[in-house]
Amino acid sequence: MTEVLRAEGVEVVRDGRPILQEVSLTVRTGEHWALLGANGAGKSTLLSLLGAVVHPTRGTVEVLGRRLGRVDLRELRAYVGHVDPRHPLTQPLRTRDVVLTGLTNSVAPLPHWRPTPAQEERADRLIATLGLTDLRDARWPTLSQGQRGRTLIARALMPEPRLLLLDEPATGLDLPGREQLIAALDELRREHPALATVLVTHHLEELPGGTTHALLLREGRVLARGTAGGVLTADQLSKCFDLPLVLDRQDGRWSVRRA
Ligand SMILES: Nc1ncnc2c1ncn2[C@@H]1O[C@H](COP(=O)(O)OP(=O)(O)OP(=O)(O)O)[C@@H](O)[C@H]1O
């Protein structure tokens, strides 16, 4: 399996305060990581590092063998799809046009840019994978939060990234919306077996059954890291969230509550 991402001994200091310390992580093709931790544990900061958005204060981050700081960040970002629920789109674009902006990496379509027939076909395939075919021509302001979330995943996948980063993609979704998103992620993993994903969440109920690995962050440090089965235990999660927890897994999905 190819290494998509390697972070070694990463430290991030902000305002003189360490936010991440001694964080190491290797993600390979076909692996689907969950990044878990309490509020302020450093999850979003770590995801920004992995997405080549920010530099570490110390340590190294390599995306597909290219070292952050040695190559142009824009070059690295081409390999990484980043799904941010705070996408700053205000225009009433149609779903399909939003998906196509993934190719120009712009919020709105560029004035003289036109997709090729092959690119349009890819957009339609991704729209289908994410269960949005009926909404292909719907306009962004009329989409629900869940529909927007799935549109942004299709958008992030347009340039065929090797790594997809998802920052709390189920935030604000109702139960059907969350379940649709999870089904779409599992479908995506089946259709693109070489893709690697890293998903940040506080809630184990939001993890797709196809999650293969997990990393638990506590106060900026790695508490546990490895296969999902080995890391997602009641004992480790209780330490991670400072709360006695019981954990249940059924049909591949997790649920957790206070002990
Ligand atoms: N630019 C910054 N300057 C100073 N402190 C920062 C900065 N960015 C983040 N922090 C602090 O770093 C810590 C980790 O933040 P981060 O957003 O990575 O946590 P998180 O685990 O994603 O939290 P949440 O679950 O609340 O989203 C927090 O205490 C936050 O206040």
TrEMBL record:
Keyword Nucleotide-binding appears in the UniProt entry: yes
Membrane-spanning ranges: none
Organism the protein comes from: Streptomyces justiciae
Keywords: ATP-binding, Nucleotide-binding
GO molecular function: ATP binding
Record flagged with keyword Transferase: no
Sequence ranges assigned to domain ABC transporter in this UniProt record: 5-244
InterPro entries found in the cross-reference section: AAA+_ATPase, ABC_transporter-like_ATP-bd, P-loop_NTPase
Name of this chain's protein: ATP-binding cassette domain-containing protein
